[in-house]
Amino acid sequence: MATPEDRTTYMDHNATTPTDPRVVEAMLPFFSEAYGNPSSPYALAQETRQAVEWARGTVADALSCDPAEVVFTSGGSESDNIAIKGVALSKLEGRGHIVTSSVEHHAVLHTCEYLRDKLGFDVTFLPVSPGGLVDPVDVSRALRDDTILISIMYANNETGTVQPLEEIGRIARERDVPFHTDAVQAIGKIPVDVQTLGATFLAASAHKFYGPKGVGVLYVRKGARFHPLSHGGNHERGVRPGTENVAGIVGLAKALELAVDDMPRESERLSKLTQRLVSGVVDGIPDVSLNGDPASGIPGTANIAFHYVEGESVVLALDMEGFAVSTGSACTTDSADPSHVLSAMGVAPNVAQGSVRFGLGRSNTEEDVERLLSVLPGIVERLRAMSPLTPRKDS
Ligand SMILES: *Cc1c(COP(=O)(O)O)cnc(C)c1O
Question: Where are the beta strands (DSSP E) in 292-349?
């Protein structure tokens, strides 16, 4: 029987990734024979406890931190919420000021808006360059005596742009302000080291690096001052109570281990594939432009504007040809507004509406890219012929 996977060439790895079969295999025993509650005293539970601690150590190695600084959560969104709201809750009395950027994932953006609108915190949403970069000088200038947190993402989910985080981390340390980074799109794709970053908190999510959905990590630097959002048992040092998602946690660690092992080879392969995709589009289709900073991006991501057409129409036409791509953030596909990320970069609304994100990953081959390039010019030409936005030569 043909399954959707047989028919679809998946090029939306920034939205999610399939769980690697080696990861699934590592997880399976923890659904059946190794089911003990890690907090229980008997031998059956010791096995699950050891598995969780193996996972913690593996993640700590990957991030260059101490295992005691690794907290398992339900994913990237929860990790962002624990860090940002956790710091804010510890400052409720004096309130305070948060510095973030205008291109953050909604898990950060909406959390900061909530703290501003409902709890009375002040938030600065920093602008970005046309390439999507935050200027560290702007971070420095935005800091005030009452700034309680800097939260700047590592790599953007829509454009792949990597922020100058080491410089921002240095400013945070010099001014003694806690620093959170949403590293969900960076982990497993580029080397991430919390020591050189000087981060206080860092968020990651397994399903973005070929692990299972619904499990994530929050790195919490020793001594960080914040309140937990949930109260209950003493799991995860009380930062995130609740019986551990043992299978998920093992899957996350296994997936991270595999991604880190593969990284040098895979990132080079994906960079080449992405270059081929971009040059093929630029050479083969008139009136296109690239969104993002070409000098600073995670391997695999290309965000391309097809002028005079709707990105949504390109996505649907490619779906009919068996390609899964996206107009950007998977969480906003039901909204007609142009992407907040592209808007913040100064991309004109009609150009932003025509933008498509290609997220290449492990399953993609040169053949996939060539096949995409063989159908894309025809699709865009057909859509432009029907589009009222297309300039007519004869008018
Ligand atoms: C996917 C994503 C998230 C959310 O992670 P979940 O595990 O799906 O909650 C947060 N930030 C960025 C940059 C992402 O790409």
Answer: 301-306, 323-324
